[in-house]
Write a structure and sequence with these properties.
mainly alpha
């Protein structure tokens, strides 16, 4: 009971006036990212670092978020774990090399961030239902038969999977 009720009202009025003036003069910056821009940042991080042995925890530190928050956003938005996405991205890169080059499979494995042949084979079978050799053999059978005027119409379903994920994320937050 240091102040009377009238004095308390006067003090509150002064504090409200000070707060109001502060709010009027302050410049606030929008720093919170939308889930869409955060997903973009995560996919960009994976695309820049997939050759290294990266983890969700390292990505969270690099992007300035807690591991648990980023993991929850990642799993709910993409409906897959970080490791699944990382392996899928690596596999996409490897399959592109299988289709477009004559580079030995052993060289492709390490060029795309895989640690060994077994993990690469397992990933190809998981995402494409084929071994790397079958994927390469299929591309060699298809590509020579393509006429130049129909080349644009030929789209490999395998190459569209990651694009489909990214587009579904875009529409999720529109």
């Amino acid at each position: 009971d240091l102040l009377s009720p009238e004095q308390m009202i006067a003090v509150k009025g002064c504090l409200y006036a000070i707060g109001s003036e502060f709010m009027r003069q302050a410049k606030f910056l929008l720093t919170e990212k939308t889930p869409y821009s955060l997903i973009q940042d995560m996919i960009e991080y994976i695309s820049k670092n997939y050759l290294q042995n990266i983890t969700m925890r390292e990505m969270a530190n690099a992007l300035g978020y807690s591991y648990h928050y980023l993991s929850r956003i990642f799993n709910s938005a993409l409906d897959m774990s970080f490791n699944t996405m990382l392996n899928h991205y690596r596999t996409e890169q490897a399959v592109a090399l299988l289709h477009d080059t004559r580079m030995p499979i052993g060289e492709i494995i390490f060029k795309c961030g895989f640690k060994n042949q077994h993990s690469f084979n397992k990933s190809c079978i998981k995402f494409y239902g084929k071994t790397p050799r079958e994927i390469r053999k299929r591309s060699q059978l298809i590509i020579p038969k393509i006429k130049t005027d129909k080349y644009i119409a030929i789209i490999y379903f395998e190459k569209l999977y990651l694009t489909k994920i990214i587009f579904s994320i875009c529409f999720l937050w529109l």
